[in-house]
Write a structure and sequence with these properties.
Elements: H1 2-22, H2 28-62, H3 67-97, H4 100-134, H5 139-151, H6 154-165, H7 170-179, H8 182-192, H9 194-199, H10 201-205
Helix pairs in contact: 1-2, 1-4, 2-3, 2-5, 3-4, 6-8
The structure holds fe (ii) ion (FE2).
Length: 210
């Protein structure tokens, strides 16, 4: 599940970079669309990392991940939060002006955010996946999965599923179905993912496929 979320984060960063590069000066509709997609991405990444801090870190510690690794993850999260805030300001500015100069500023902030984020995701995967893979029956792992599934309301879960599935590879979809039962994904994602599919997914349809 964590890997599927990480893939969605990497995919969105790639999409934003391409979309900002292609941005045409004065295209107000596109600036508004990109701001909408940004607000979803910003919320998903913030929620993911706050959830990790509260739920995943204690579980990983219980499974034997060193305190020093966890505190490095937290440092990386703080760096990401700072870059998210900086990028948020540039995307909001682009939403107001729709100028090519502001698209350049947003592209520069997005590039920095991508570097910080991808560095962290790679590091987290390297350190945690062997531990998670070796302990599928660990009580802390089971507890963590339950806590994550109870954390968000049904509406937020629908958006979350729709976002993860948008542009996902067959492999990622299969991995998602291993974590979330098919009927749950179909019903919650189907009903409560509508807003994402209506307001955000079309933003990427015009940038080509990723
Ligand atoms: Fe993380």
């Amino acid at each position: 599940m964590n890997k599927v979320i990480h893939c969605a984060v990497r995919r969105d960063l790639t999409r934003f970079r391409a979309a900002l590069d292609q941005f045409a000066d004065g295209d107000r509709a596109r600036a508004a669309a990109l701001l909408r997609a940004w607000q979803n991405f910003d919320a998903q990444l913030t929620e993911h990392h706050e959830g990790e801090h509260e739920i995943a870190w204690p579980a990983l510690k219980a499974m034997g991940v060193a305190d020093t690794s966890i505190s490095t993850f937290d440092d990386e999260h703080h760096a990401m939060a700072a870059d998210l805030a900086a990028t948020r300001a540039t995307m909001e500015q682009l939403g107001r002006s729709a100028s090519r100069a502001d698209a350049d500023a947003a592209a520069a902030a997005m590039a920095a955010l991508e570097t910080t984020t991808v560095t962290h995701l790679d590091h987290e995967e390297q350190e945690t996946e062997p531990v998670l893979g070796a302990n599928p029956e660990h009580p802390a792992y089971k507890q963590m999965s339950k806590q994550f599934s109870r954390r968000s309301g049904i509406g937020a879960a629908g958006t979350f599923f729709a976002w993860m599935e948008d542009g996902a590879s067959a492999e990622e979809r299969a991995a998602l179905r291993e974590s979330v039962p098919g009927p749950v994904l179909a019903i919650i994602g189907g009903l409560f993912g509508r807003r994402y599919r209506k307001e955000v997914a079309p933003v990427w349809a015009t940038t080509g496929s990723f």
